[in-house]
Amino acid sequence: MTEITEEIFKCVMKGICCASHLAKGAPLISSRVKSDMSVVSLYDVVIQMIFCKLLEKYPLTIVSEEEDNDFYKDTLKALQTNNISQEYAYIKEFLIENEISLEEPLKPVCHSLAGTGMEIILDPIDGTRGFINSRSYSIVAACMKDKKVLFSVISCPKENIVYYKWNMPENGLSGYPHRRRVRTYSLSDSPHTSYSDFLTTLSLYVAISAEKTHSSPILTEFLDRLSKLYPVHIVRMDGQGKYACVATQKIDIFLRLPSTKIQEKIWDHCAGIDMNEMSIVTDLHGIPIHPCTPPAYGVIASHSQIFHSLSLNILKDLLM
């Protein structure tokens, strides 16, 4: 279950990256008023088609608003002919560059939840009037199974930022247990590079001191063992910014080994520990550290209980 969901998650994110770059680069935006007086743009329809194409091989249902109406059919037909309007020319060139072929039959969509099986809830352009008028808008997707959300994604192309969250039940290291709180990444200069940047954020971000005097064989061995269990991205930082990054989920683990050469001071830790009230901050014995008490035996901080416990177990073995 987790493996196929991870695959679908990454496929949806490819769609998010493609849709975001397609929308933010739009030279013109044509639209129509639907029977319920809401507005639909050409990009609403094309983005829905992109998701239908990317997800066509998976056993799931796509739930989206845009109907299989005349506008939908006309759009698909125009993309398959030599329509020379600037808007269609831009879209067709984008699809070719990103190797997306919108050919019939596309995966059908539903307009309401079935409540069973896996379902992708898609809003191609959330805030169409904002999109048309060069204001803010979003591209939104979520995955549900049996009325439980497995993951969710909100892209804000005008702000160049994508938010995502992984909700699969924590079961060891499977899936992305460190992404159960919202994570972000920035849209880059192309769908490919944006997707590559997203994949990097799935790694385990570990912060250590930038000072060479804080390095040790134990730290090197810890990072080596951790990287054999999960992809690791090492971030070297000075100061209490490491604590702040844990609190805001920009860093997943902050490790500071105990040292006989350094006497810890309260001003080196107080604010950082306080900011991590919702995280787990302990010494290397696993004893919680209070903001008013300087750590006596190192620091390990994480917003993920799974990776905090894993790190403690590795360190206990190394420090025996």
Q: SSE string, helix = H, strand = E?
A: HEEHEHHEEHEEEEHEHEHEHEEH
Largest sheet: 7 strands, mixed
Find the CATH topology of the largest domain.
Fructose-1,6-Bisphosphatase, Chain A, domain 1
SSE-based structural type: alpha/beta
Please state the second-level CATH architecture of the largest domain: 2-Layer Sandwich
Rounded to an integer, what's the Rg over CA atoms?
24 Å
Per DSSP E runs of 2 or more residues, the count of β-strands stands at 14
Q: Write down the CATH class of the largest domain.
A: Alpha Beta
Helical content stands at: 25-40%
Number of helices: 10
Count of all domains = 2
| Overall pLDDT score | 89
Distance between the termini: 38 Å
Keywords: Hydrolase, Magnesium, Metal-binding
Organism: Nematocida ausubeli (strain ATCC PRA-371 / ERTm2)
Cofactor: Mg(2+)
Family: Belongs to the inositol monophosphatase superfamily.
How is this structure best summarized?
By secondary structure, this protein is of the alpha/beta class. 36% of the residues lie in helices and 22% in strands.
Describe this structure in words.
With 320 residues, the protein is of the alpha/beta class. The protein has 2 domains: 1-186, Fructose-1,6-Bisphosphatase, subunit A, domain 1 (Fructose-1,6-Bisphosphatase, Chain A, domain 1); 195-319, D-Maltodextrin-Binding Protein, domain 2 (3-Layer(aba) Sandwich), CATH 3.40.190. Helix content is 36%, strand content 22%. The protein has 10 helices and 14 strands. It has helices at 2-24, 42-54, 70-79, 86-97, 128-132, 191-201, 217-229, 241-247, 270-275, 305-318; strands at 31-33, 39-41, 61-64, 109-110, 118-126, 138-145, 148-156, 161-166, 183-186, 204-209, 232-237, 253-256, 280-282, 299-302. It has a 7-stranded mixed beta sheet with strand order 4-3-5-6-7-8-9. A 5-stranded mixed beta sheet has the order 11-10-12-14-13, with helices on both faces. Strand 10 (204-209), helix 7 and strand 11 (232-237) form a beta-alpha-beta unit. The radius of gyration is 24 Å and the shape is elongated.
